[in-house]
Specification:
44% of the residues lie in helices and 17% in strands. Strand 10, helix 8 (263-270) and strand 11 (274-275) form a beta-alpha-beta unit. A six-stranded parallel sheet has the order 8-7-6-9-10-11, with helices on both faces. It is built from 13 helices and eleven strands. It binds nicotinamide-adenine-dinucleotide (NAD).
Length: 340
Amino acid sequence: MFDKIEQAHLNELHVRCDEETGLKALIAIHNTRLGPAIGGCRCIPYPNDDAAMEDAIRLAKGMSYKAALAGLPQGGGKSVLIQPKHFKNRQAYFKKFGEFVDSLNGRYITSLDSGTSISDMNAIAQSTRYVSGTEADGCNPSPITALGVVEGIKIAVQFKLNRDELKNLHVAIQGVGHVGMVIAEQLFKLGVKLTVTDINQDALKHCQQKFNATVVSPSAIFDVPCDVFCPCGLGGIINDTTIERLQCTIVAGSANNQLHEDIHGQQLHDRKILYAPDFIINAGGLIHVSYIHNKQSLDEIHHKTLQIKDTLNKVFTRSTQEGLSCNVIANQLAEQILYH
Ligand code: NAD
């Protein structure tokens, strides 16, 4: 365990069990140099305790990097709840988790993630104020995440294709859910030709009817000749089997952990495909959660999200100058902020 903590430079790992509610929770705080750690609460089944711990450490580190490069006054943290087979009382379970969060005196602020909902956040809020994403917050970060991605696509297109507008470009979107659908709508308004895929037929029909999108099967999206491939569904989709199939010049989308491994960032670089690092381009959601928690306005959220462009431009420029892949440059920039 300590090897993994050391490798990730994790500051704190907290564990809490509660027999009555069935709570088995971990809170990982990666780094609080810039401010209190912030990051979602994930509640999913895990094959074993080690897998849960590794997920918490990996995700907390990712949040530190994301917050640092978004210029937020936050550190990175994450909570992982090992989902019980049956909840005896879901409300009581999350209220108990709220007590755990509260015991850290504000060093960690929790929010939504896979397997948790707004009503879970409401239950957490009964025990702590260190939670964002409750009903009272009116928190829907997806449109802000989409805004950041569209701005990111614009700067990538300017950098790579030397074009100031997106009109008549072709973007292939993988996953038209909460974020991908807003991106599709915004790109359509900008005159972009769209190809989309999803496993949700209703979402696809909507894209066809409203945005004149071409629909392809989930497996065919990697083969679509296009200017921008925009992953907005799953993680790990840039991998050994897909990378050779890509026929785009830019990869820029909202999905977390798009690269299966760091080496795939290098392979994109070698293939002269410009990669907008996921934890920079999709930071709009985190900016939203952080600013809402700190009682800042929607205007301020927008303003901050537009700065994603500048960070990406810096990464693209340095990547070209130094001949290093964009993901390596992004990690270096984050580490510079966190450790120097
Ligand atoms: P979502 O669940 O609403 O959308 C994901 C979409 O992908 C769904 O429509 C789903 O049907 C589709 N999908 C699932 N499997 C698929 C497959 N095999 N092929 C094609 N499509 C598939 O999630 P979201 O909130 O829109 O987030 C999308 C991605 O962006 C996720 O990786 C998420 O972690 C990341 N992200 C989201 C936010 C946010 O504000 N919501 C912020 C940062 C990052």
